[in-house]
Specification:
With 251 residues, this protein is an alpha/beta fold. Helices cover 33% and strands 26% of the residues. It has a single domain (28-56, 73-249), classed as P-loop containing nucleotide triphosphate hydrolases (Rossmann fold), CATH 3.40.50. It is built from eight helices and ten strands. Strands 6-7-8-3-9-10 form a six-stranded mixed β-sheet, sandwiched between helices. The longest helix is centred in the C-terminal third of the chain and has 16 residues, at 174-189. It starts with a strand and ends with a helix. The structure holds adenosine-5'-diphosphate and magnesium ion. The site of adenosine-5'-diphosphate has 12 residues, from strand 1, strand 2 and helix 1. Residues 44-45 line the site of magnesium ion.
C-alpha cells in the first residue's frame, strides 16, 4: 500500500540545511496497523508528512498503491490525498465555530456533496465513534478524547484506504487514549491501513508492527504480539460505518 525506497528529505533554511530523512526503506502492506516510534526530532512527523503527500521529498521513491508520488502538482497531490488518505493529528484540528456534525461533514463539503447527504453521512460516522448525542456541540464543549473521536470520524468520512495519525493520543490521558486506540483498531479491523506515530510504548504495543526511527533512519521494525500480518481480508478501504458492537468487540 505504502512503499518507500531510499527516501531522503532535507530542510533548507537560508544558508543552513538539516538532513532529516536519510534513506528510508519501508513497505506498509494493505490492511496493516503499524506504529512509528523514535525520539523527538528523529523525523517521525516528516516521514508521516511524506506518506501523506503533505510534504515533498528530495531523494528516493514513494509509491502509494503502486503509483509513484513524485513531482506532483498541488492539485494532483490533493487528488491522491482525497482519494486515499485520512489524517488525525495530536491537536485534533477541528474548526472551533462548527459543531461536531459539521466538523465531520467538512470533507464532503469540499467534495461538493449536498447538505442533507453530508449531514446524514456525518451522523452515521459520529455514531460509529459513539458521539451521536454530541452532534450539536462545538469542540470547546467536548473533552479532548471526544474531540479526537470527532476528528477520527472526520478522517473516515471520505472512506480512506489509509489513516495517518501523528501522536493521536499525545494530548490525552491513559483511559481516553485507550478509547481512541480502540476506535483506530476497529478501523483497522474494517480493512483500513493505519499508521500511528507515537512515543508511548503501550500505544505502539496495540499495533501489529513497531518501526523505530532514529536520526532519520529506520533502526528496527518489529512485530508485536498482535503482529500476525494484515487483517483479513486485506483488500483495503473503509467500507462505511461499522456498528458500535463490532468496534467494542475488537480485542
Ligand atoms: P519528530 O516528529 O520525530 O519529533 P520532525 O519530523 O518533526 O521530528 O522533525 C525532525 C527535524 O526536522 C527536527 O529537528 C525539526 O526541527 C526539523 N524540522 C521539522 N519541520 C521543519 C521545517 N518545516 N523546516 C525546518 N526544519 C524542520
Ligand atoms: Mg512529530
Amino acid at each position: 500500500m505504502l512503499q518507500l525506497e531510499g527516501i531522503e528529505k532535507t530542510y533548507r533554511m537560508g544558508k543552513s540545511s538539516l538532513r532529516v530523512l536519510k534513506g528510508i526503506d519501508l513497505t506498509i502492506e494493505k490492511g496493516e496497523m503499524v506504529s512509528i516510534m523514535g525520539p523527538s526530532g528523529s523525523g517521525k512527523s516528516t516521514l508521516l508528512n511524506v506518506l501523506g503527500i503533505l510534504d515533498a521529498y528530495d531523494g528516493g521513491e514513494y509509491r502509494l498503491d503502486g503509483t509513484l508520488m513524485k513531482g506532483l502538482s498541488e492539485r494532483r497531490a490533493a487528488h491522491y490525498r482525497n482519494q486515499f488518505l485520512g489524517f488525525v493529528f495530536q491537536s485534533f484540528h477541528l474548526v472551533p465555530f462548527k459543531n461536531a456534525m459539521e466538523n465531520v461533514a467538512l470533507p464532503l463539503y469540499y467534495q461538493k456533496v449536498g447538505r442533507r447527504q453530508r449531514n446524514r453521512t456525518a451522523m452515521e460516522h459520529l455514531e460509529r465513534v459513539g458521539l451521536a448525542d454530541w452532534a450539536n456541540h462545538r469542540p470547546s464543549e467536548m473533552s479532548g478524547g471526544q474531540q479526537q473521536r470527532v476528528a477520527i470520524a472526520r478522517s473516515l468520512i471520505t472512506q480512506p484506504k489509509v489513516i495517518l495519525a501523528d501522536e493521536p493520543t499525545g494530548a490525552l490521558d491513559t483511559q481516553t487514549s485507550r478509547e481512541v486506540m480502540d476506535i483506530l483498531k476497529g478501523v483497522h479491523e474494517g480493512g483500513t491501513t493505519v499508521v500511528i506515530v507515537t512515543h508511548e510504548h503501550d500505544i505502539s504495543e496495540m499495533t501489529q508492527r513497531v518501526i523505530h526511527l532514529r536520526d532519520g533512519l529506520i533502526e528496527s521494525s518489529e512485530r508485536t504480539t498482535h503482529g500476525h500480518g494484515p487483517a483479513s481480508p486485506p483488500t483495503g478501504g473503509y467500507e462505511g460505518p461499522v456498528s458500535a458492537e463490532s468496534v467494542a468487540a475488537g480485542d
